[in-house]
């Protein structure tokens, strides 16, 4: 109910008070920004490289996984609205140490994933504008700066911007898929699985980047005017939109592009060429900006609030929690994310590291967060909610294994997080 207070186990309130003003429309836009992110620009290529036409199987499996995962996080966020999100759920179900580790996975994945998202968007925009490597770096930094500035202005402002961008983005992707589908050729689906089940598993591992976002919205649950009602509605609407767009894009990419889907880093641009011709370049650039900004904006918003909650609960330095409350911008946590994101962007540019490792490292961390979140739901919820959470947990654990050696990233963060938390509690 609106205006109720849910106490966390550490005694800190997660309220849906008068400062929380997000409704269904803005919530749906923020969720779409988190789930329908810039990965959609590059991931069809990476998935096709890993599995060939059978990458469609990975897309379908992950869409099926998104339903119980999305509904589970909506149920948890509605029942326990708090900026800690999955970390708060973990605290209730498994205790403070698991909570701290879960929070670290999400918080420190953002400075890796946000630059990756900005790089994807810049990689599409720069060629359309005739810019070289320097221009691409400048665009990457510009997208990051814009998202941090929007969050600095407040969630109501950034949510309003996101609502407009989400509508434009959905219309653009529908138009791209509709224009390309008549060019689908059945021969492009054979051989269907040239790399077998191993290829499908590898495709699923990288595609998880396209299906995260539910855990990000849980950090914004206390900002909803009515978390129980509005978050559930926003989740259902997002599931419907994402399902249609992702399936259409997956089929069109393989069916229209054939072998080019595995070799071109800009598959959406090639699809648009089928229907838009010379307009494909600027249209793709526009889509890249919308996708990149939307996802980065949502994750920064959730991460900033998580950082304040972690500081409140002793998992990060206490000053990060000062001035943070539902409806208010956690400026200190936001500033730390900005510094870390800038540093990692500079390191990635200087080292020449590609998108694939950045996206896989981010996916591994967020898959770990999702696994803990749905496992917590299996203990905290009852009835149908618990049954859905059990299904979500089983799916997520299987998918987590598909991340392979990149699981070393969340493992390393877990070790550091436990050491820091243990030291602060002495």
From TrEMBL:
Enumerate the UniProt keywords alphabetically. Cell membrane, Membrane, Transmembrane, Transmembrane helix
Transmembrane residue ranges: 29-50, 56-76, 104-125, 131-151, 163-183, 195-214, 235-259, 279-302, 334-355, 361-381, 388-409
| Subcellular location per the Swiss-Prot or TrEMBL entry | Cell membrane
Q: How does it sit in the membrane?
A: Multi-pass membrane protein
- Gene Ontology molecular function terms on file: transmembrane transporter activity
Q: What is its main location?
A: membrane
Q: Name one GO cellular component term.
A: plasma membrane
Q: Could you tell me which InterPro entries the record lists for this protein?
A: AA/rel_permease1, APC_superfamily
Keyword ATP-binding in annotation: no
**In this record, what's one Pfam family?**
AA_permease_2
* Protein name, UniProt field: Amino acid permease
The organism of origin for this protein: Planobispora rosea
Taxonomic classification: Bacteria, Bacillati, Actinomycetota, Actinomycetes, Streptosporangiales
């Amino acid at each position: 109910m609106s205006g109720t207070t849910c106490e966390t186990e550490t005694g800190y309130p997660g309220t849906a008070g008068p400062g929380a003003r997000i409704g269904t429309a803005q919530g749906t836009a923020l969720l779409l920004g988190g789930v329908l992110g810039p990965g959609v620009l590059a991931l069809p290529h990476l998935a096709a490289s890993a599995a060939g036409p059978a990458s469609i199987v990975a897309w379908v499996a992950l869409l099926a996984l998104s339903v119980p995962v999305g509904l589970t996080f909506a149920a948890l966020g509605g029942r326990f609205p708090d900026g800690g999100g999955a970390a708060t759920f973990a605290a209730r179900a498994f205790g403070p140490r698991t909570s701290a580790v879960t929070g670290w996975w999400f918080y420190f994945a953002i400075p890796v994933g946000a630059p990756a998202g900005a790089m994807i968007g810049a990689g599409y925009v720069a060629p359309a504008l005739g810019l070289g490597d320097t221009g691409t770096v400048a665009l990457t930094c510009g997208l990051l700066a814009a998202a941090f500035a929007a969050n600095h202005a407040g969630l109501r402002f950034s949510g309003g911007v996101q609502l407009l961008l989400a509508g434009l983005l959905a219309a653009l992707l529908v138009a791209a898929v509709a224009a390309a589908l008549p060019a689908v050729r059945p021969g492009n689906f054979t051989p269907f699985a040239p790399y077998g089940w191993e290829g499908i598993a590898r495709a699923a591992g990288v595609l998880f980047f396209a299906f995260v976002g539910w855990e990000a919205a849980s950090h914004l649950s206390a900002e909803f005017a009515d978390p129980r009602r509005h978050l559930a509605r926003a989740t259902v609407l997002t599931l419907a939109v994402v399902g249609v767009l992702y399936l259409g894009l997956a089929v069109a990419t393989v069916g229209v592009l054939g072998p080019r889907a595995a070799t071109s880093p800009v598959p959406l641009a090639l699809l648009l060429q089928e229907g838009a011709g010379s307009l494909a370049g600027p249209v793709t650039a526009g889509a890249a900006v919308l996708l990149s900004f939307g996802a980065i904006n949502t994750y920064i918003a959730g991460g900033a609030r998580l950082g304040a909650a972690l500081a409140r609960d002793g998992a990060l330095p206490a000053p990060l929690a000062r001035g943070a409350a539902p409806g208010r911008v956690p400026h200190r946590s936001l500033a730390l994310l900005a510094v870390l994101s800038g540093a990692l962007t500079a390191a990635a540019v200087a080292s020449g590291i590609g998108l694939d490792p950045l996206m896989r490292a981010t996916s591994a961390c967020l898959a770990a967060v999702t696994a803990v979140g749905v496992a917590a739901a299996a203990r905290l919820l009852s009835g149908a909610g618990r049954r859905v959470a059990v299904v979500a947990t089983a799916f997520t654990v299987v998918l987590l294994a598909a991340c392979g050696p990149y699981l070393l990233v969340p493992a390393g963060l877990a070790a550091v997080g436990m050491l820091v938390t243990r030291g602060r509690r002495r």
